[in-house]
Structure formats: structure tokens, C-alpha cells
Design goal:
Blueprint (H helix, E strand, L loop, with lengths): L5 H19 L20 E4 L6 E2 L7 E7 L4 H16 L5 E7 L4 H10 L6 E3 L5 H5 L7 E5 L5 E6 L7 H10 L9
Parallel strand pairs: 3-4, 4-5
Antiparallel strand pairs: 1-2, 1-5, 3-6, 6-7
């Protein structure tokens, strides 16, 4: 049995580590880092899922947004939808909009879910290429992104929230600076 000299083993490991780091830096997704708090919302075209006209994230500037990424196959997403619907009603008439972004492959399932649950807030499809989901690097569902009227990401929330409860209200108030205005 041949035992390598310790200095050769150390150099070999250092070379392997350097090569791995070099390969990891290739490509256009440096580590899957999500655009964080303070980043601008990426400019993406959104297709209406039901009656909503196509729009772009740039066209939505001037209004604070609560953007919820969801899918019909995601049980937590389905549970969260009714409280998002109620939140959208509480925020009606204010410069805050709730919008949904379905990442379903079968948009007919998403349309049927929206109809069956009588969701009235705008819901868009992210399209075949999932441009919006990809630009924001959404990796888990549901994910909600709170965006200021100026287009700055104010908060990212992964997992379901009870948007009717005190925690959900506090998140919206703090992230979108609504402290002096009633959300209820």
C-alpha cells in the first residue's frame, strides 16, 4: 500500500477546493441569492390568469404591492388564499394592492381554483418561462413579497401567514409604512 506524503494530500485538497469554487462561480445564478430588502422589483410582464389584462411590474409602480406566489398543488397556498382575499378587501380604496402569481403548469386548474374560491384580487400567470419567479428567485411556496409604491422590496415572507391576524397586520403595516393608517 502506498501512502501519499502529507504535503501532496494538502495540495491536492486545496486544488480540489479551488476548482470547486471556480466552477460554482460560473453561470448566471451566483449562489441563488434572492433580491433582498431594498432591491428594486424586477421589470417583468405578467399575463392575466382570468379577466386581468396583461401588465408589467413597472406599470404597477405608484401602488404598494403584496405579491403572493402560489400554486394549486401547494396545500399551504390553498389554505392562505381566503385570508389574502379578505386582506385585499380591507385594503380596497388604498394605495396597496394584493396580487397573486400562479406558478401552475396547468393554468386551467388555477382558473378553476380562483373561480371556486371566488377570489377577486388580480391573479396573474407567470408564463412558461417563469420569468417573475426566476427573477425573484422564489424557491418555496407560498412566498409573499411586499413592495413599496416606489418599487422597492420591503419584505419577503416564505410560508403561509394568517393575514387576518395581528402578525399579518403588523407585517403589512411595518413593511409598507402604514402605521398611522388603519388596515382593518
Amino acid at each position: 500500500m502506498i501512502i501519499p506524503k502529507p504535503e501532496k494530500t494538502v495540495r491536492w485538497r486545496a486544488g480540489l477546493l479551488a476548482g470547486s469554487l471556480l466552477l460554482a462561480s460560473c453561470g448566471d445564478d451566483p449562489g441563488g441569492i434572492q433580491p433582498g430588502i431594498g432591491a428594486q422589483l424586477p421589470e417583468v410582464v405578467l399575463t392575466g390568469l382570468t379577466d386581468e389584462a396583461p401588465t408589467s411590474t413597472g406599470a404597477l409602480r405608484g401602488t404598494a404591492l403584496i405579491i403572493n406566489f402560489w400554486a394549486t398543488w401547494c396545500a399551504p397556498c390553498r389554505r392562505e388564499m381566503p385570508s389574502l382575499e379578505r386582506l385585499s378587501h380591507r385594503l380596497a380604496g388604498r394605495r396597496v394592492r394584493v396580487i397573486g402569481v400562479s406558478v401552475d403548469a396547468d393554468l386551467n386548474l388555477a382558473r378553476e381554483f380562483v373561480r371556486a374560491h371566488q377570489l377577486t384580487f388580480p391573479i396573474y400567470a407567470d408564463g412558461d418561462k417563469k420569468a417573475f419567479q426566476s427573477a425573484l428567485r422564489v424557491q418555496a411556496l407560498p412566498q409573499t413579497v411586499l413592495v413599496t409604491a416606489g418599487g422597492t422590496i420591503a419584505a419577503r415572507i416564505t410560508g403561509t401567514r394568517d393575514w387576518d391576524g395581528a402578525e399579518g397586520e403588523r407585517l403589512v403595516e411595518q413593511a409598507l409604512n402604514l402605521r398611522d393608517k388603519e388596515v382593518r
